[in-house]
Amino acid sequence: MTLALVATDAEHDELLDRVVTVLCPDAEHDGPCPVPWATTSVAGDSLPPPERVALVEAIEETNWTAHGDPERLDPPLRTRLLGAATDTAAADADDDVRAG
């Protein structure tokens, strides 16, 4: 499962706590969980440009306008999330989608 989100540190921690509760509803049980699991969290700005573009696109694809179209993130936020990935990687990703 992959969760792509934009969150503050506090929102991130709260979300991870909720995910852990879903995966292991009884945190006080003895021994390992009956179903093994783990979580990993990665800051988007640590990703290579193509993965950063894919992350932003995944977030945008879950935000829909009233007309049923994907809604882009606020431009300053999108620029901050993409960083240096905005030009070349975005163009490469668009080419990949068209070539699909």
TrEMBL record:
Protein's UniProt name: Uncharacterized protein
Q: Which organism is it from?
A: Micromonospora endolithica
